[in-house]
Amino acid sequence: MDKIKKGIHKLCHSVTLSLCHSPLSAVEGIMTTDTFSKIKNVKLKIKNSEITIWGCAKGSGMIEPNLATMLSFILTDAQITKDALSRALKIATELSFNCLTVDGDTSTNDTVFALANGVAKNKIISEGKNFQLFCAQLTAVCIELTKMLAHDGEGATKLITVNVMGAKNIYDAKKIAKTVANSPLVKTAIFGNDANWGRIVAAIGRSGVMVDSKKVDVSFGNLCVFKKGHPVSFSEEIAKKIILQKSVSININLNSGKEYATVYTCDFSDGYIKVNASYRS
User: At 132, which helix (H) or strand (E)?
Assistant: First the structure.
């Protein structure tokens, strides 16, 4: 840490004034195999004060938070208590970055933090409606950054959103969504524009969650391909048009409860192999 602190001190004196005022430079500075910078900001009003929430992120491979090569920094000018900001970030992270996977691999580098300087001079946010409003907008920023990270997965050509509904609890819904999202067979099927419901159902079955297969529905977007535990006839042409899109939704309804979860991922292409096979440490 002594060497790192010394380096930071030197950098602070060597960085030009123009760079200090350029968020884009900071975002580009942390990119590794990313193909584009990831920035999102929103503005909200609390009474007569306008508040800005700005966020950036990086990461393309070795991503499934719980130690992954993903970094995200959130800045806001809101006046908010430390406890409220911590609670809001925890809620936002659970619904966004913790619902992200590119390849299921993790690393020793994983950070999300938020800073607030209070320049907006709004009434201090601690709880109640103002906290709920701030939390909702912070969550929106984090979800958009999460989608960008998934869309920019190494070699990815598509963003895949896995929605699991009708679960008995959130834990089951998220576990199934993560299993489907991390399935190489599902990811390659989407890359190949194949509405392969069998690979999705197989992933559901091996998720470790007790499921009544006779109640399960699977759809690609609004196109149902599997209903109440059985495949149904569908138009391959329509299915291909849906999966050819840059953003594909896999919707799974367990019809066994009221809870749901969403996980964001991407397809696996030959580009992923090229990036990681040619990488040298």
Answer: helix 128-151
**Residue pair 139/95 in contact by the 8 Å Cβ criterion:** yes
* 3-state SS, residue 13: helix
Query: CA-CA distance, 42 to 55, in Å (whole number)?
Result: 9
Q: Which helix (H) or strand (E) segment is 272 a member of?
A: helix 270-277
At the top level of CATH, the class of 30-151 is alpha beta
32 is an active site residue? no
DSSP letter assigned to residue 113:
E
Q: Name the strand (E) or helix (H) holding 24.
A: helix 23-29
153-192 b/e (C-beta count within 10 Å ≥ 16 → b): bbbbebbbbbbbbbbeeeebbbbbbbbbbbbeebbbbbbe
119: helix, strand or coil: coil
Q: What is the pTM of this model?
A: 0.91
Give me the catalytic one of 16, 33, 69, 262: 69
What are the pLDDT digits (tens) for 156-202? 999 999 999 999 999 999 999 999 999 999 999 999 999 999 999 99
**Domain 159-277 in this protein, CATH class:** alpha beta
